[in-house]
Amino acid sequence: MSLVSLEDRARSSSGGAMRLVSEPGALRRLAALVDELAPTGEVVLVADLTAKTVDGGDVDARVQAALPAGRHRRVVRVPAGAHGATLDERTVDEVCGRASGAAVVMTVGSGTVSDLGKVVAATLGVPLISVQTAASVNGYADPLSVLVRNGAKRTVPSRWPDVLLIDHDIVAEAPLALTRAGVGDAVAIWSSPADWYLACALGMDSALYGSRFVDPVRDLAPRLADETASEAERLASLIDVLTVGGLVIGDAGTTAPLSGVEHLASHVLDMSAIAEGAAHDLHGAQVGVASVLASALWDVALEDERLFDLGPTDFVVPDDLEGRVRAVWQPVDPTGVLGEECWHAVEAKMRRWVAAGPQIRAFFTHRREHVTTLRVLAGDPSLPAAALRVWGAAVAFSELSPPVPPERARWVLSALPFMRDRLSVADLFVLAGRWDDRLFDRVFARAAATGGGLGV
Ligand SMILES: [Zn+2]
Q1: How far apart are CA 1 and CA 7, in angstroms?
Q2: Residue 284 domain boundaries
């Protein structure tokens, strides 16, 4: 995709709200952009405490040097705890307070700082320039922020940045772990759209599936695995895939097109690590490994199990479902609070399933067409595995840092349908009475055939 069409896409996806400047040396255009958005007044830079370098210099200093000459500026550092910055209520309020009086807010950083900047600018009612310093997630180019509310991570509407500035020279020097995590977040494109399509087609998602939210990312994604491309070309492809991913999420108004079973697995890994006070890997790194597993699950559903050869009456809510949901979360939270919360979500999902009878019957009447589409959207674990391998990113659970041991990885797979109210292919296995060890063995074996799954 050429730069011009990507800039046009950004403009149209955001309804004209966001301008994209993505190129090597993009920082040179900063002064003009600041003058255009806020001709006078103070520029408040919101940044984290992590030192970043580009071309032997400090990134924050380079950004400040690129501001209009003589313009007042103030730097607000985001307070960080032991595990980096956490966007809880206190942190958001504190940064909003310290940034007040700004004529324009500018964030310099990766996903967390970018998400915070959207909330700060929305609260203060001033323009926002987001300077993206790593290609680590797809969340820069959307009007959403991941915040911590009452201790739980929630994706909430915030606002588009007026300008998303991606200087490829800066991103090229981001820590390799962040770039590899970006690849992991990007390869979800080879599994997540199938879960979204399934939920919409079965009447389990109020949104209407639209290929326009999926195809732009699918078209670009194979470039991630292009071993003949130069490093700079590959990085540009990664930036494009992630940026377009953010745009389609913003356009669709839901993360569902790019968040299926593989994202569930990453959330489950986070939750179990947090409950134990243990470390976990970056979001994207976990999503990458889980994307291979999710593709394997889809492959097994479509090929070995021929799940859609069953009839609508073969899918029945199991009598022991509540007990199974509570049991799966017991090791993570012995108090039962998490099990209770997850049971409410699963119960709502199953109520919806029962109410969706007519759409479910219609789905199975037209199953041939649906299965044809699903086969296109998912079911080839070699695609995410190949892209991850080209970048040296983790493919198997044992390659995450810290490594996820086999028994934990099996538990993660087993927990997938028992967490949230969004339907995925895992729920169909539960309803078909086939969500069991025999199936898990098959899925891990399929993932292992591409170098993914449990690992060594
Ligand atoms: Zn993600």
Answers
A1: 10
A2: 178-207+254-448
For residue 316, the one-letter residue type is V
Same domain, 156 and 187: no
Each residue of 109-120: pLDDT tens digit?
A: 988 999 999 999
Residue 287 has pLDDT above 70, yes or no: yes
Are residues 139 and 161 both part of a single domain? yes
* Helices 437-448 + 406-415 axis angle, to 10: 120
| 304 lies in the same domain as 417 | yes
Per-residue pLDDT band for 434 (boundaries 50, 70, 90) equals: very high
Describe the chain by its helix, strand, coil percentages, rounded to 5: 55, 10, 30
Which of 350, 372, 371, 360 has the alpha carbon at shortest distance from 421?
Answer: 350
User: What is the Å distance from ligand 1's center to 6 Cα?
Assistant: 21
CA 111–ligand 1 middle distance (angstroms):
11
Cα separation, 170 vs 27, whole angstroms: 9
* Residue keyed to tokens 């919409």: 200
* Distance between Cα 444 and ligand 1 center (Å): 22
**Cα(73) to centroid(ligand 1), Å:** 33
